[in-house]
Amino acid sequence: MSARIEQHTIYQIPLDQRHGKAHQLFTLWFGANLNVLTVVTGALATTIFHQSFLSAVLAILLGNLVGTIFMALHAAQGPRLGVPQMVQSRGQFGAKGAGFVVALVAFMYVGYAGTAFVTGGQSVHFIVPSLSQNAAIVAIAVISLAAAIYGHDVIHFSTRMMTYVSGSALLLAFIWLLLITPIPGSFLTQGSFSAVGFFKMVSMGALWQLGYAPYVSDYSRYLPPDSGPRSAFWSCYWGTTLGAVLPMILGAMIGPAVTDGNVVTAIAQLTGRRVSLAIMLLLVPGVAVAGAICLYGGALAMITLGHTLMPHWRITHRARVAIASSIFLVALLISIVGATNFLPLYSHFNELLLYLLVPWTAVNLIDYYLIRFGDYHVPSFFAADGGVYGHYNLTALACYLVGIVVQIPFVAADFYTGPGARALGGVDISWIIGIAVVSPVYYFAVRSFQRPLLAARGTDATEEC
């Protein structure tokens, strides 16, 4: 068994161990998005935001099509550099400067995993009522941990299977609701377009995709460098866009039948017990895979954070297994003991985390594509002194702080609504403001203040994998 467990952790993947094809990123992200939580997100458009079905579909499409651009640009970095996304951030922020973002991402993974466990447990309990919800949560969590321990290749294989398994559930749901026992026509006509609700759903779709940015290249880092960033970008782009849009549209379609936020009950009400059981049975494995992605990415992020604090630590696959298991225990405890109180609070805090990640995305992408053109000195990512990138990049850190500040007036969340958002009727455009401001500010700041430094390091910073 240990021979098949992934041996690599956060270090650069050697060229002779690179494998796979860029098109496999399509099934990875398509399959990863096919689960109950994506359906729940889509249902918000016609329930909480009171949109008509048509305007809901347009908002879902627009948000995902735009948000995935940034997510896929991160994915294209993996084949060239061969390291996890959070390690690569040291090239922009410095060895220690990147630590804050890494810590945020590590915490985010814990909550994501807990949410996946609860969602999966509720679905299993619906399928097998005799099994308590807590026991179902444990079952989903254990499956997630097993896949996370085996690592990269097993997760790729699992999501590839979900493309067919959960994809069948989605197809069955659409066929049943549109052709066999059509949903009431009023479902497609009730609600109405409103700018506030429409743009809230656009932001929901965009932030759904931006949430993948901190770990998307973790799953492209094994690809050979000659697989090409273009292929990685488009495979990832269309995989995650279609994987998110289709179940979200299903959620928007059944939204009028949703009561108390229970999508599973709504599906059962519209399709009948037997068909809904088949749909949920096919969708449930996708939640376990989503949990595995969270545990695997969380382990890499925690290892990166630990290496930041202890740069001489030589990490092995055993450390990855131990850390993934620790995250599993914390997330499981949260999902069982604190689901009622913690998860709603955590969802609000997770909104805050996404706001904090927006300026990181802008700095990372501008630095990679417009400043260094993908040329980084990978050994410096692991140097105790930060190598050519040092401990801190003050320019990047300052721009990151600017990105947080400029978003604040435009935040519209349960925990806070800024004056700019109130003036727009509650529409949250903070992520647009953050990216629009930080991108040019960082670009011109580097060109103005760090040009001699970049020129002096240019030769060293272009070492290939």
The count of strands amounts to: 0
How large is the count of helical segments?
Answer: 20
Termini Cα gap: 29 Å
State the helical fraction.
55-70%
Order of helices and strands: HHHHHHHHHHHHHHHHHHHH
Which ranges are low-confidence, i.e. pLDDT below 50, for 5 or more consecutive residues? 458-465
What overall form do the CA principal axes indicate? globular
Strand coverage percent? under 5%
What Rg is obtained from the alpha carbons, in whole angstroms?
Answer: 22 Å
Structural class: mainly alpha
Question: What about the largest sheet?
Answer: none
- Average of per-residue pLDDT values: 87
Question: Can you tag this structure with a few keywords?
Answer:
mainly alpha, disordered C terminus, 69% helix, single chain, 465 residues
Structure explained in plain terms:
- 69% of the residues lie in helices and 0% in strands.
- It has helices at 24-33, 36-43, 53-75, 78-81, 85-88, 90-93, 99-127, 133-150, 152-180, 186-189, 195-210, 229-254, 263-271, 273-309, 317-337, 339-371, 394-407, 419-423, 430-449, 451-457.
- It has 465 residues and is mostly helical.
- Helix 1 (24-33) runs parallel beside helix 12 (229-254) and helix 3 runs antiparallel to helix 12.
- Residues 458-465 have low confidence and may be disordered.
